[in-house]
Amino acid sequence: MYTRNAISSAGARSYAQVGLQSGVMSASPHQLITLLFDGAKTAIAMARHHMAHKEIAAKGKAISKAINIIDNGLKASLDAEAGGKAGAELVANLSALYDYINQRLMQANLRNDPALLDEAERLLENIGSAWREIDPQKSHSMPEASNDHATPRFSAGA
Questions:
Q1: Contacts by 46-55 with C-beta closer than 8 Å and gap 24+?
Q2: How far is CA 64 from CA 52, 77, 137, in A?
């Protein structure tokens, strides 16, 4: 009645979905935004794959998913009231950048241009890597020195 591959594939998808849901349920707000960046990056990678294989409908679906994550996840989570005037300015700049990324994704879809996917992915990765660096749960303390003559150590971001 069912083929073995169909059962295995469906089982794997169900297992992955449960794992994702569990991760989302236990994630901090900061980690949820990180998951959105990862999801957008994955959707863009899938769009690139479908574009290369001339799978037009699948490419459009993957690009739509990336745009949805950016608009209804990343952009919708911006809080203009946090951080005062400087925070409002940052939110306005990020919002405009997300709009630009979405425009590039739509153009990539219309033109079948992987370079536009690359640009969108690079921009998201720049924002995402900065977001990961400010993770409040990330340890920013210096390691303890074993003696008084130890050379101070600095993180790569210092």
A1: 47/105, 47/108, 47/109, 47/117, 48/114, 48/117, 51/108, 51/112, 51/114, 51/117, 52/114
A2: 17, 19, 32
Q: pLDDT of 47-77, one tens digit each?
A: 999 999 999 999 999 999 999 999 999 999 9
> pTM for the whole thing?
0.74
CA distance 38 to 44: 10
Tokens 């996917």 belong to which residue? Answer: 117
User: Token pair 């989302």 is at which residue?
Assistant: 24
How far is residue 155 from each of residues 125, 133, 136, 140, measured CA to CA in Å? 20, 11, 16, 8
Alpha carbon 154 to chain centroid, angstroms: 27
